[in-house]
Amino acid sequence: MSCYFQGCTSKGTTREHIPPKAFFPDGERHQLLTVRSCPLHNNAKSNNDLYVLAHICMNASPSNRAREVWEAKVVPQLAFNGDKFRDMLAAGAKPASEGVAYPVNKERFDDFFTALSCGLIFKSQNAPLPPDYRIGHIYHAFTSDADPALQKLEAAIGAFYSGPPIDSFNFGKPNLENERIYTAEIFGLAGFAGHITIAHCFFGKFKVTSMLSKF
């Protein structure tokens, strides 16, 4: 069987977890779905897992399980290699009205959510995302210098995809179970007949909308 990642023709000789194991406390890994992956698309994404998890926890805490996962999974890594990870997260941080604002490497987030989206599609359809799709992501919890009209549009998109899809746009369910940590709803026409939207939500608070546009 081939790799789960869009456009990859290599054999899936390893198993990729979606979401990653680091997102779940020990003993609560019943939600750990896996897809077949080539070594490249398994190992390459793993470098972003902890980085993305740390920022999600900081944005979602103390909601739901975010603080618990932060303490169990992120804190032990902060001092690793001479505080390198702690320093990387704190670089460029500035005071904000509600605490501290931390800059985010959007490229690393995009790589993470592109891989996660490809995994969810493969799991729900037993087939990889076709090559005629382009993938983009909206991070509703992050602030930016984007045009106010664009920010308003992104907020409207998040609100529109805030519930389960109607039957005709139910693209399939990947059977996620631990809803206090992660949920995903997939909207789209069966058979890759049009655009696909994935509404991710971590810890009941941190929301991301992945737009898979067909060309």
C-alpha Rg (nearest Å): 17 Å
Largest sheet: 4 strands, antiparallel
Task: Work out the number of β strands.
Answer: 8
Approximately how much helix is present in the residues? 25-40%
Q: How many H/I helical runs?
A: 5
Strand content: 15-25%
Task: Name the strands of the widest sheet in spatial order.
Answer: 5-8-7-6
Q: Unreliable runs, pLDDT <50, ≥5 residues?
A: none
Question: Between the first and last Cα atoms, what is the distance in angstroms?
Answer: 26 Å
Q: Give the averaged pLDDT, no decimals.
A: 88
How would you sum up the global shape? globular
Q: SSE string, helix = H, strand = E?
A: EEHHHEEHEHEEE
- Structural class of the secondary structure composition? alpha+beta
3D architecture notes:
The chain is α+β, with helices and mostly antiparallel strands and 215 residues long. Helix content is 37%, strand content 21%. The chain contains 5 helices and 8 strands; from the N terminus they run ββαααββαβαβββ. A 4-stranded antiparallel beta sheet has the order 5-8-7-6, sandwiched between helices. A two-stranded antiparallel ribbon has the order 1-2. The longest helix has 22 residues, at 39-60. It starts with 13 loop residues before the first strand and ends with a strand.
Tell me the layout of helices and strands.
Elements lengths: L13 E5 L14 E5 L1 H22 L5 H13 L1 H11 L3 E3 L2 E3 L4 H20 L7 E7 L8 H13 L21 E7 L7 E7 L3 E9 L1
Antiparallel strand pairs: 1-2, 3-4, 5-8, 6-7, 7-8
